[in-house]
Amino acid sequence: MIKVNKSSGNSLKNWRSFSQKKVSGLATSCANPMYNSKKMKMKVNLAVQLLSASVANAIQFCNKDLQLPQFQGSEATVSFLRLLDRLFDFCNSTNPFGHGCKAALKPENEDYWHPFTGKASVYIKKLSNASHCT
């Protein structure tokens, strides 16, 4: 079972607040609000930007290189974000000439995408919060 502890669960919240402060050049897309103030509808494109490899890299940078205490224990969040980023790439792939996870899902390249999607499915099913709720 994969557990998301409180410190790693707060990594995205910490990153959002950190990116809104006087930090230039790390990830400006996270500083934008994900909600439309008038309609309160979630903007999916902004949510996908938050669940990306770029944000995972930024959180890892804050943890490893800057050694900021609010990002300690964020390894599980980084792994989760990278997995979701790759899943989004697989699901959004329509280019018949693309390679790897940027290629369209077809029977001809099933040997590439099927093992990953199987592992991702198992990983997601094993996720739980600190209270062991799945």
Short description:
The protein is mostly helical and 134 residues long.
Q: What does it look like?
A:
It is a single chain. By secondary structure, the protein is mainly α. The chain has one domain (2-128). The chain has 6 helices and 2 strands. It has a two-stranded parallel sheet with strand order 1-2. The protein is globular, with a radius of gyration of 17 Å. The N and C termini lie close together (10 Å).
Binned, the helix content reads 40-55%
User: Which segments are poorly predicted (pLDDT under 50) over 5 or more consecutive residues?
Assistant: 1-5, 22-37
Specify Rg, calculated over alpha carbons: 17 Å
Overall shape: it is globular
Distance from first to last alpha carbon: 10 Å
Please give the oligomerization state of what you see.
single chain
Strand elements, count = 2
> How would you state the average pLDDT, rounded?
75
Global structural class: mainly alpha
The description of the largest β-sheet is: 2 strands, parallel
H-E order: EHHHHHHE
Strand content: under 5%
Number of helices, counting only DSSP H or I runs of 4 residues or more:
6
